[in-house]
Amino acid sequence: QKEVEQNSGPLSVPEGAIASLNCTYSDRGSQSFFWYRQYSGKSPELIMFIYSNGDKEDGRFTAQLNKASQYVSLLIRDSQPSDSATYLCAVKSNFGNEKLTFGTGTRLTIIP
Amino acid sequence: KAGVTQTPRYLIKTRGQQVTLSCSPISGHRSVSWYQQTPGQGLQFLFEYFSETQRNKGNFPGRFSGRQFSNSRSEMNVSTLELGDSALYLCASSLGPQGSGYEQYFGPGTRLTVT
Fold first, then answer.
1. SS3 of residue A27 by DSSP
2. Contacts of A69 (CB under 8 A, 6+ apart)
3. Alpha helices (runs of H) in B1-115, residue ranges in sequence order
4. Which of A23, A46, A87, A100 to mutate to test the interface with B (most CBs of B within 10 A)?
5. Cis peptide bond prior to B108, omega within 30° of 0
6. Which burial class, exposed, middle or buried, applies to A87 when counting CB atoms under 10 A from its CB (0-12, 13-18, 19+)?
7. N or C: at which end does chain A have fewer Cβ atoms within 10 angstroms?
């Protein structure tokens, strides 16, 4: 079982709709959760992080965390063509192993 | 403020050779982490350096090594290259070590092709 799992996609969403990206993790000791966006041929950039159960909103982006289910998601409202990219979920445990573990990413395509 | 820089951007090597990649972090950043990115495995953590000391290491063979200098610049070395080492190598810098809550900023990467 991979430590961090994401559906590789591609996920196609019409412009203006809500894009929902999901991520599950295996380490129950994980404490910090990050979403990175990576455009083709570019390096990853951090767009959201979340530490506590529940929702965290930042503009059109909402991160949702459920530690009991070991599940974190990213919602993108009013999707724009510029949101087309690969979204990487990353998880970090703060107990003895602080390295950031990434999922393989979900490729999102927004259809105009 | 200049971002993270990596040199070279592209590299072609043959099996058995060794290679050294360089990363210059954002000014003031003391932590540098290295990652390998391949289509099949995604982004995998190699190691992290903070204040010239290796803090964490991923599950890579000993052929992969690194170091950090007093000016926080870091180098990664891969010896006895294998075809499977072909990948995009990314470094990321942050003000503090991983786990301290500081954001990591990624460089543009070095694309290594092993033939």
1. coil
2. none
3. none
4. A100
5. no
6. buried
7. N
Cα angle at B66 between B65 and B72, to 5 degrees? 175
The DSSP secondary-structure symbol of A17 reads: S
Cα A38 from chain centroid?
A: 11
3-class state of residue B85 by DSSP: helix
Cα A53 to Cα A28, B39, B82: the distances in Å are: 13, 31, 43
According to the model, what pLDDT value does residue B1 have? 65
Q: Which residues of B touch A101 (CB under 8 A)?
A: 45
What is the four-CA torsion angle of B53, B56, B61, B64, rounded to 10 degrees? Answer: -40
The CA distance from A74 to A91, in Å, is 14
Q: What pLDDT, in 10s, does the model give residues B35-74?
A: 999 988 889 999 999 999 998 888 899 999 999 999 999 9
**Residue B71 and residue B84 in contact, taking contact as beta carbons nearer than 8 Å:** no
Peptide bond into A14 cis (omega under 30): no
Query: What is the amino acid identity at position B17?
Result: Q
Which of B43, B53, B94, B100 is the best substitution to test chain A (most A C-beta atoms within 10 A)? B43
pLDDT at position A1 is 64
Question: Which B residues 66-85 touch A at CB under 8 Å?
Answer: none
Q: Look at residues B5, B3, B1 and name the one whose alpha carbon lies nearest to residue B109.
A: B5
- pLDDT mean values, one per 10 residues, chain A (112 residues): 84 97 92 92 91 94 96 97 96 71 94 95
